[in-house]
Amino acid sequence: MGRFNAYIPNIVASRLAPLASRAFARTGVHLAVLGFGLASLVGCQKPLQRPIVLKAPYETERVWAVVPFANESGVSQVDGMAVADRFVSEIEQVDGLRALPLNRTLAAMRSLGMTNVRDLQQAYTLMRTLQADGLVLGTITEWDPYKPLRFGAAVEVVSAGENGQNKALDLNELTMPTAESTGGAATARAEISQGSRIFDGRSNETLLELERYALGRASADSALGPKAYEIRIDLFSRFGAYVLTRDLLEQEAARLGVALPEGRAERPIEKQ
Q1: How far, in Å, CA of 216 to CA of 156, rounded?
Q2: 61, 65, 184, 215: most buried, per Cβ within 10 A?
Q3: pLDDT tens-digit map of 92-125
Q4: Sites in the chain below the pLDDT cut of 70
Q5: Is residue 154 classed as helix, strand or coil in its secondary structure?
Q6: pTM value?
Q7: Where are the domains of the chain?
């Protein structure tokens, strides 16, 4: 009996050894497959790309503030504050510019009893209160949040100038600039740069510009990637804010006589 009991551990060990060997082999295969999968994922990841960054044509850094946008699109459900905040976000990313938070601008307007900016004197008063170098005013002219998206706006940046403080500032002029509003002596004294565009999701020109903007700003490995900018009005209008900010900077460069690389207010992309 004692001898029989002595054989039991040997029998159990002999039967368990193949099972353990097979389990170890299966574990090794699973680890190998997992390692191969991870290596494949790492290998398939696309290299990061630098986004296009705007550059201000000024010798020193300047500060801009943005006023909530007026709505003349014919669509009642448009948030002029949200659109202005997207301009704040894009201006803040410009090399050589800083943008004041929209809440600070709103607080200053409330302290001055302003609900909007009606003339240049109010614009200068608000700029002095904020200690800003420029004030961005705008009007939403087109708004369609359903694909194909459509967004339009007219904007201007007012810089401090002399002898222009009593000139009336009609935001309707932003919808369709005239020779009087864009080329007059008073406008030149007021140092105003303007821009107006309509971004149409059906236009190849808009889509090509949008693809260029989204490069480096959207993850190409995500489900939507850059296509998200074609179906989300918040992203689409932010793209519009970028282009219109670029237009303002190029107008400012022309006003100041500053030459821009290839005529665009963009920082040259460094080679990776």
Answers
A1: 28
A2: 65
A3: 999 999 999 999 999 999 999 999 999 999 999 9
A4: 1-48, 161-190, 219-224, 269-272
A5: strand
A6: 0.75
A7: 1-44, 62-263
